Amino acid sequence: MKHDQSFDGRADKFARNIYDSSKGRIRTAVVWSDLEACLARLGHRPLRILDAGGGFGFFARRLAALGHQVTLCDLSAEMLAMARSAVEEEGLGDRVRLIHCPIQDLKLHVQGTFDLVLCHAVLEWLVEPRQTLLGLFPFLAPGGILSLLFYNRHGLLFQSLVVGNFDYVRAGLRKKRQTALTPTNPQLPEQVYDWVGRGGLRIIGKTGVRVIHDYMRHKEDQSGKFDDLLAMEQHYCRQEPFVSLGRYIHVMAQKPL
Predict the structure, then answer these.
(1) Which among 17, 82, 141, 214 could bridge 113 via Cys, Cβ 3.0 to 4.6 Å?
(2) What digits encode the pLDDT tens for the residues 206-247?
(3) How much is the pLDDT for 245?
(4) Within 13 A of 207's CA, how many CA atoms are on the CB side?
(5) pLDDT tens digits, residue range 141-160?
(6) According to the model, what pLDDT value does residue 19 have?
(7) What is the dihedral of CA 141, 138, 28, 56, to 10 degrees?
(8) Domain annotation for the chain: domains and CATH numbers
(9) Can you tell me whether residue 206 is helix, strand or coil?
């Protein structure tokens, strides 16, 4: 029987790989820019925020530091321990609530609705991504915004083609041996958009994350030309066809009033 992925046993490595690298810095900058736009759309007021599968709380802590009340849940006890340590160190204990549970069990721990719901880099680790995503929609308040970041199957396919990994493509993007930090279930964008629409939400923005970085011919330029690269990423990330080629896609969707 398949199970959703937890990062217990590899939390430190995961945190370093995601945020202490050129690709992580691009992801942080691009997604945070989107989140700032969401906050502006919600009126620059104290918000109630849910970070579903939020790991060690990188964005949750940033949002709490702005004065918002944040509830963060995660399946990994190690990730939550890292989050708790950072929350205490940053003096955010009165603004961040940590819950150790799978997203599917949130209804047992949380009451009420939220102005902003984050679900970042979670769907691609789930056995049943559609059902889990649909289960989050009732937590959105009327007018609330969903911030959904997912690993893009089209981006994975294109990068595999560019580097000539044709056997991997022929195998349906399935590896014989799964690496610890490679998502197990990359998502088709058109399918995710359909789920969001069928859930009654209106998509208000789409952003490609790493629309250039992973395709660069000279990998040393990813760090050696980082400032120029980030500027180009930010310039093209909300334009097609680049959105659809992002290694991740960030979808923002709003619930009707």
Answers:
(1) 141
(2) 999 999 999 999 999 999 999 999 999 999 999 999 999 999
(3) 96
(4) 25
(5) 999 999 999 999 999 999 99
(6) 72
(7) 110
(8) 11-255 (3.40.50.150)
(9) strand
Q: pTM higher than 0.85 for the full model?
A: yes
Measured distance CA(204)–CA(216) in Å, rounded: 30
Q: How far apart are CA 250 and CA 227, in angstroms?
A: 22
Token pair 């603004």 is found at: 95
Output the CA–CA distances (angstroms, integers) from residue 25 to 12, 21, 96, in the order listed.
Answer: 17, 6, 24
Q: Binding site for S-adenosyl-L-methionine: which residues?
A: 27, 53-54, 74, 120
Q: Please tell me what DSSP assigns to residue 51.
A: E
Give the 3-state secondary structure of residue 79: helix
Quick one: three-class SS letters along 138-196? HHEEEEEEEEEEEEEHHHHHHHHHHCCCHHHHHCCCCCCCCCCCCCCCCECHHHHHHHH
Taking each continuous run of H as one helix and of E as one strand, the counts in the chain are 10, 7
Residue (of 152, 107, 96, 97) closest to 132 by Cα position: 107
Spatial CB neighbours of 216, under 8 Å, sequence gap ≥ 6: 222, 229
Question: DSSP states of 221-240 as a string?
Answer: HHHHTHHHHHHHHHHHTTST
Per the annotation, binding residues are 27, 53-54, 74, 120
CA 79 – CA 93 distance, rounded (Å)? 16
